[in-house]
Amino acid sequence: MYASSEAVINQFLRTYPYPFTAEALQEFLIKGKGKISLKDCKDYLETSPFVFELHKGVYITRAGAFTGKKFSFKL
Fold first, then answer.
1. What is the DSSP-derived secondary structure letter of residue 39?
2. Contacts by residues 60-66 (CB-CB < 8 Å, ≥ 24 positions apart)
């Protein structure tokens, strides 16, 4: 993975609010002139603290999970 590819992925993972697949992320990166293999993309998603796996192969970012949602904490 190239440094610019990693920067694009990090930006995507910090802001994208909808569920997505590793294939969709790879396509997004390729359209932005980046390069990443599907295996590297999946590995990155599995280890990123900004991503939750909803179900097999479908992910959501923290932004997607928490933006516009209400929740509270009880002490």
1. H
2. 60/18, 60/19, 60/20, 61/12, 61/13, 61/14, 61/15, 61/16, 61/17, 62/13, 62/14, 63/13, 63/14, 63/15, 63/16, 63/17, 64/16, 64/17, 64/18, 64/19
The percentage of the chain sitting over the pLDDT mark of 70, rounded to a whole number, equals: 95
Helix%, strand%, coil% for the chain, nearest 5: 50, 15, 35
Enter the tokens of residue 69. 């949602």
Tell me if the pTM is above 0.70.
yes
